[in-house]
Amino acid sequence: MRILVTEFMDERAVDRLRARHDVLYGPRLVDDAQRLHAEAAHADAIVVRNRTQVRGELLAALVRCRVVGRLGVGLDNIDVAGCEARGIRVIPATGANAASVAEYVIGTAMLLLRGAYASSAHVAAGIWPREALSGGREIGGRVLGLVGFGSIGQLTARLAHGVGMQVIAHDPLLDASDPVFSNAGVRRATFDEVLASADVVSLHVPLTDATRGLLDARRIGSMKRGAILVNTARGGIVDEVALADALRSGALGGAALDVFATEPLPPSAHFSDCPNLLLTPHVAGVTADSNARVSFLIADKVLEGLEPWQS
């Protein structure tokens, strides 16, 4: 059977697929739409990351496909209902990159709260900004507010407790009586409470009609003064222009954005010269370790998903 891999995947996991099936591995195939659609017509399974849009023309081209493997957890780039209507099974790598995302959240929060780690060039040049950089904040004793409390949010809470943070969380999909909160030592809060009281707010929700523009100018304005915002979820959830304005005004103390409304992020005037801002190219969940976990998980699940169709 034919397996099409359209974005980067751990090559040892690709070899696992090759041991059982014919594999076309094209880490940059996503950027060649004409070839991608031509190859899709011959694919019994397709493996993608977040840039490959399994919808519209590509979905129509997948006339033989039985399985879509997603090297990640978000499914906003996949027409799940359309796949199901065609009898195509969609398999995300649930949980495999949770540790990488959770570490990113706590690591960037530490960097932004402390505010002293961009001083290497000054110190090396003989400048000694000790007084200017002595007003940073410790992470211990601060409040982490989680918006969304699934597997990644829960692991982030555990790491946060390990560095002495208090944790509150809002998740409208979980009942107030759900034991997941008490088991994790986390106080359930309303969305408004999280924004008003958290020193660090971290987003862990999918991009849906309900979450698009969730953090607009009004809600960003309701956040605790000096708070840090971390978005590893999806672009489009945060109003980027309003966030930049809040950073420039000093209303917010910093932000780390790993996802954007348009990716790759085009040259952006609203982020130009923006203070206390960390921008990364959708890599919070991607490390050498997590890539191996995600890749092998999806390789095994794709092989399993193809078994009923093998002659």
Report on the structure:
This protein has 12 helices and 12 strands. With 311 residues, the protein is of the alpha/beta class. It folds into 2 domains: 117 residues, Rossmann fold, CATH 3.40.50.720; 182 residues, NAD(P)-binding Rossmann-like Domain (Rossmann fold), CATH 3.40.50. The strands form 2 sheets. Strands 8-7-6-9-10-11-12 form a 7-stranded parallel sheet, sandwiched between helices. Helix 4 links the parallel strand 4 and strand 5. It is globular and about 70 Å long. The N and C termini lie close together (10 Å).
Question: Can you tag this structure with a few keywords?
Answer:
311 residues, alpha/beta, Rossmann fold, 2 domains, five-stranded parallel β-sheet, 12 helices
Give the count of structural domains.
2
Could you tell me the radius of gyration in angstroms? Answer: 21 Å
Oligomer class: single chain
CATH superfamily of the largest domain: NAD(P)-binding Rossmann-like Domain
Stated plainly, the CATH topology of the largest domain is called Rossmann fold
What's the overall geometry? Answer: globular
CATH class of the largest domain: Alpha Beta
* Mean pLDDT level: 96
Strand line-up in the sheet with most strands: 8-7-6-9-10-11-12
Helix content: 25-40%
Number of strands: 12
CATH architecture of the largest domain: 3-Layer(aba) Sandwich
Give, in order, the helices and strands: EHEHEHEHEHHEHEHEHEHEHEEH
